[in-house]
Design brief:
Elements (H helix, E strand, L loop, with lengths): L1 H21 L21 E5 L6 E2 L15 E12 L6 E7 L7 E7 L6 E2 L3 E2 L12 E7 L2 E14 L12 E8 L3 E3 L12 E4 L2 E2 L1
Length: 205
């Protein structure tokens, strides 16, 4: 009986030794690895703060007779942007959603983010007849940037020929573009990736 048991143990040991030598049984080591995939998509966002104050022309320079109507400005609003595109890859355009009254003019100027270039005050319509212009470049050369609190300045002008203009609204749309191709529009609510940024300029006599 003992001889049979010794024989079975010997056969089992031989089988285990054969399995280990053939590599079918492998012990854990002190390191392990995984492959981690990653990517970064393009991020291109723009937003504006609340609407500007009423732009209301009420007098001439120094309230003098013989003077032209005095322009009014608003600097109470700001804009923000995030872009991870390349150097000088982006620009911002501005366009009116409709015509202005004849002999009036609405202009806008955006402060530039770090590395960008402001185009200064840009008229958004033809003064003589009020026709809205095509989209105007207001900031160019935008590098990768994440910045907020940049100023927005609106200027409203009118000639005496405009007459009395009742309270009305104008919608200005800012668009973050490639220098050659439209990318997206992003709104005040910061809808992820795409939306609409608007600013109203209320004009009244």
């Amino acid at each position: 009986m003992n001889a049979q048991r010794m024989m079975k143990v010997g056969v089992l040991a031989a089988a285990v030794g054969s399995a280990v030598s053939s590599g079918s049984l492998r012990a854990d080591t002190n390191d392990a690895s995984q492959t981690v995939s990653y990517q970064v998509d393009e991020i291109a966002l723009i937003s504006v703060s609340a609407d500007p104050s009423l732009l209301k022309i009420t007098t001439t320079a120094n309230d003098l007779a013989g003077g032209v109507p005095l322009d009014v400005t608003d600097t109470t609003t700001t804009w923000a942007t995030t872009s991870n595109a390349g150097t000088d890859a982006k620009k911002v355009t501005a366009v009116l959603g409709g015509n202005m009254p004849a002999h009036t003019e609405l202009s806008v100027e955006l402060g530039a983010p770090t590395g960008g270039l402001s185009a200064g005050s840009k008229s958004l319509n033809t003064r003589s007849d009020g026709t809205a212009l095509t989209a105007q470049d207001v900031v160019t050369g935008i590098d990768p940037v994440a910045q907020s609190g940049m100023g927005v300045t609106y200027t409203f002008s009118a000639d005496v020929e405009a007459g009395i203009v009742g309270n009305a609204n104008a919608t200005v749309t800012f668009t973050l573009n490639d220098h050659s191709t439209l990318v997206l529009i992003q709104g005040p609510a910061r809808i992820p990736a795409r939306g609409l940024a608007t600013a109203r300029a209320d004009a009244a006599a």
